[in-house]
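agent: user wants the full assembly modeled, not chains individually. Plan: 1) parse entity lines 2) check alphabet per entity 3) run joint structure prediction 4) return tokens. Steps 1-2 passed, three entities, 1462 residues total. Proceeding.
--- entities ---
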Amino acid sequence: MSRLSITSASMLLTILVANIHANEPAVSVSDTAAAANVNINKTDQVAVDNSTVTVEKKEIPGVKTVADSVTVPEVVGESKAPDATVVGVEVDPVQGSILAVPVIATIQPESVTALMPIESGRNDSNPIWYKDGSKLSFERSEQGKKEILITSVEGELLQKIYVQSAGNDELAFLLPGITDAVSYNAGISWSPNGSQYVFMSNGGEGNYDLYLGNSENDISERLTEYEGKDGQAGWSPSGDRLVFVSGRSGSGDLFLLDMPSRMTTQLTNASSPFLYPEWSPNGKSIAVINGKNENHDIYLINDYQKPAESLFQLTSWSADDLRPMWSPDGKKIAFYTNYNDAGDSRIWSIVVVNANRTTPVSEEELKNSIVAFDVIPDIERGPAWLPDSVRIAYVKNSRQDYNPIYIASSITGVSAKLLTETRMNHDVSCSSAGVIAFRAQVEQWDQIYLAKMP
Amino acid sequence: MYQGKYIKLLILAVGTASSIANAADVRTGTSLFKQNLYNQAADELTQALPGAGSGQTMVNLTIGMNYQHSAKLHAALQHQSLIVQDEYLRNIVKAKGKLKSKYAHLYYGEVLLENGQYKQAKKFLQNASRIKGVGSSYKQLAKVNLGLAEYLTNNKSSAKKIWKSIKSNDSEVTSELAAAYARVGYQANIAQSMIEKALAEKPGSSRVLANAVNVYADIGAIEKGLKVVSMEAIDTSAADEAFGKNKEIKYFDVRLMAGMSKLYNLAAIKSLEKVEKDSKLFPVATYYLADASYLDNDLKTAGAYVDAYIASGVPSFMDKAVNLKKLIAYRKGDKKAFNVSVPGSKASSVSELIYACARAKADCDKPLKSAEKMLENLQGNSARMVSYAVGEYYLRHGKSDKAVYFLEEARDKSRKNNIQANDPVMLVSIAEAYGHNKLYSESLEIYFEMSKEFPVVRQIQDATQGIYSTEQKSAGDVKIF
Amino acid sequence: MKGILKHIAMIAMIAVTTTSFTTAQAESLRYGEYGRPSTLDPITSNDMIALRISELIFNGLVGINERQVIVPELASKWEISKDGRSYKFFLRKNVMWHPKPDAEAQPFTADDVVFTFNIMMHPKTITPLKVRYEFIDSITKIDSHTVEFKLKRPVLNALAKFTFKIIPKHGPDNSVYLSREDSFVKQPIGTGPFRIANASSGQEFEMVANESYFKRPPRIKKFVAKPFADQNIMNQALLFNDIDMIVLVNPRNILELQGDKRFVLQPYNALSYSFFGYNTRNPLLTDSRVRQAFTYAINRKEMLKSFFNGQGTQISGPFAPGSWAYNLDVKPLPYSPQKAKELLMEAGFTMGDDGIMVKDGKRLSLNLNVPIAKESEAIKRVVLAFKNYLKKVGAEVNVQFQEWQAWKDDVFSTHNFDIIYASWVFDDSADISSLFHSAEIGQWKNNFGGYSNSDVDALIAESKLTLDHEKRRTINRRLHAMLADEAPYTFLWTLTNYSAYKKNIGRVKIHPYKFFSYADRWYVKGK
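--- prediction returned ---
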């Protein structure tokens, strides 16, 4: 370790963290948080050139390191990770030791815009992209009713979805004690060519079922008629079928609806609910959670045509694992877990594992596959993969910062804060064109925003 | 494999289109009416009327409907006020010791009188007229009411004698006298001048205002009455009794909402009658005229209008009209009016039958059972309609547990106390049911919201708080979280 | 023969596909809670989840039924002396404690009552209950089934206070004081309608009906408390039939549940309210005009509508609107940033160059301490809004989110805070004496803000002494008006709590504070 003579006692040097992985843009470092003493090992490559100190990163797959021999939790010295996840370096002039300083890396989006004019009086949420990124849907809650809006990526309103059974409003007006029936519509999933979509609605009648709509006209067709809930539908990326969750078999099983024949097939049969099924990008497999109470695990149905045989339990530890999302290239799965050393079930992390496997993930591997720590579990949308299948957008449970959006690298575990300048962000979802949609609070009401990644 | 149903998607409509000059104002007024904001709707629509041109008839119809709903609401509120004030004041009057209330006798006497319990009323009013340590106006008020009680029990001569003996310059007393005269139709011609004088002298007295509303309603001076209703002091207490430094009881005029109901009803009839020339709209008006006449206890006119409506064949209120007819028949003495073997399977006909039966307090156990069975398979608005009717039935038949259950089924739970999301008359029933079950906080919450549009419910809130404070038993825990 | 078999097979198939109820399931109720309790006994427990469980497991000497009438529980009758200072309870005979595992059930006696009171009041027992029972002077065992309490002074509605839960003498390991390390707090035994079947499974708490309950045995044979780590998952569990009831529905999930006719969404009112509380010890906050200014600065109506779906009511003072003590003449201060600025200037502040008001060289910069509860999204939204609103009138708010214990230490022990955001939950919301009386200033006492006003003190003292209901009402109205004016808190709102449950659960009466008080009469409707 070379001694350095520095004039200022507490000079902080900014460094450029060298990124080994080609896909990651260089991140600039700013905003210091707390500081801690760490000794850099003698064998480390530390070079100082005038005002720049570079630390060469060593990349170990599955293990996050930032500066040599320094991992984030160690920086702080205790089990709590800091808000920052990139380590910068501060030189202590007296001792000549190099202090590792947790700093927050940041990313400046190319643009941040509200999708539609900002209004108060209604809350918008849950943006869902059509796969080519040209249009998206979101849900609008106003006065007790919920409708789905479809807009182009430029914010032009294309369609409003609000199913109501015919012939009720006259009556509602005239009879005492009764008001307009409210309808709840949510959870859209597009067909591969985007001309049709499936969504969940109670039609203003108290019974959640799947409906089929299309972009040409306002006619919708009811697809299911079970008296309990049918929902969480996903249109297969590869063909004319849907997976959805239904309570008809007991408590939440997966069903397949073949669109041409309208026949349903039961895919699972368990005493605890299967929830939030997601098709793999090639339309062959389904990721889903199953479990009870505080313990859910990730399951894969590797081949939807052989659901019982190909059902595979990915995780089995006692922590709660939720909302698996496939990377766009189909090779990895990201999900939330509330595992942590302190056993605090309110602290959530994001884990990324390989999808193609024959053995379940061991506890050791899971612990080492955490790519983001202390996150807000975004159950509506799940961890939001970026098109490069490496980075994930998520909401950080920052104590000071009102739920900022961060971008994590699933390889290095480095996170950077996306400078959207919006607050109380949630429902993060990224299009194939690299535009992140999310909701944020503006003057007390939630609006949909789009942030274009640089 | 089942068939998909085709259901039309609705793009949200924004109010009704209208081809009249100030369409926007009319739309606002109509929308306020649909949201059960009767006071605001009345203001808005009345202002929009002159400029409505060809749409005047429609506006008159809406104004009429609005006032009729308001009249019904205030009648329901009056009913509530009597219930809670009776219980509240009964306790106050009982309290003994140094801090015994003096005023309570008068006010309790008034409540008893309005409830038709004349013997008891006279007892308390007698006491009130003789109580020591109160001003002479108070005793005169008691005398006026004593006279009224005598008159209403057919002792007209002793009533007149009592009234003649009252010598007072206090506007409250003269207003009270005016109201008594107008009510029984004795010397009604001087009632108006008496009340106008009192109004000019003491516009800040809620007793004077309440009396004025009643006088104007009784003599049919609608415009003047409506002006009084909008005056500031209308929802304030009629008297405050202080006991030492830190005890004060508020008393309210229990006739206020009865007068308002009558007034609104008259206003409704007046507006609805203007619709007669329009053959398309008049049928709807006849239904409301029937309902208004019924509220006014004019069964003959009500019957005529309801028959006219039924003859018109217009479907929108047919179920209501058919059952209003039964209600009228029942009131006229036909105890079998509600004997229907098969109420039908349509939710609206079933619910209207049960609702009318509830209003009559008649026995409809058979249709009730089939209604309850129907509920198991009903959904959405239909279920709420039937639940409301069933709940109302149980309430009127004294089964408050069941009443609460069914009425809650009819309520929009996400906006549970909101009168825009729930019919206020239904909310009043819910509050009553909860009151019978001693869950006063639920009633208080309902009235808290309601007071924003209808501040005159204050007297109900005050009495309910009073009852609640004596009934509440709890261990006194407080936690922070 | 074949025909019959086929017939039977068809019936079996239909049975499987039409309904998800087996007899075993029809007799149990699985309910979801967001989080898990730390201790299960009624003395040390400090969270609402545990409080609810203790309603099922324990009894008090008396109970309060749905009609606000005091009814016998462990005491079958009682005698109150004329001067109101002596309460004698005659205890029910033939009541048995739940048996400890691998042991015989023991009988309930006066010794248990004496034991409970003494352990509750022991200085080493950490419990929030002590201050509530300070009015009790002593307890004496008269005989095996009679106890007598002597009060320091007569107290209004004292009988209602004897609803505190009784624990067995042979229950805790330590017979002198109760600590959280005692095995009893994890595996309690009581006399109540349900007993803990297995508390050690970690995942859920199974409580089975006490068939020898001294009232009728409960109609539902099993209650299972299922803790969830995520409220959305809990909501889906209800919608997909995995649980039968959610105790407290997250406001964001109400719309979806309301849209499903299989469920009852039942509101219950816990007579609670949320507020921003001020530390009047800070010179910047000593002037009531500053605190009032903050109240004018925020738009409470808007926040309620957006963050809580409008499920709540704005309040103007220290009581919930459903309380009999609420002063209906005191209206909430309107939203007026202009008025807020005026008040601050009246109080001697001037606008600084950086947009923050200054007085005597000190910037109006304050710390807001917020406990991270599990409901953190709604809390963060409110806090963010507060910060923004105050910035607009020239006050800088630095928000600190803290762990529960650290927050409590700062607020109640070291008083190291400027503003807090929290809620009070009341059993009897008319009793605000511990919140605003100056004698309640001090370590671990409820008047955390150090608020002191002799008029308020005098009124509170008088209300505690009087036995006259109307006097109490009047005093509370005066307190409401005073405290609204003085603004030791910015009073925000009372939120409506909703429970959601399957329609086939009958006779569900919910106690607004303890929830399960009447659960022994709930039942599952048959087919």
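agent: reporting back. The interface with chain A takes residues 17, 20, 36, 203-204, 226-230, 232-233, 236-237, 239-242, 255-256, 258-262, 299, 302-303, 305-307, 309, 372, 374, 376-377, 380-381, 384-385, 388, 399-401 of chain C (CB under 8 Å). The CA atoms of residues 255 and 309 of chain C lie 9 Å apart.
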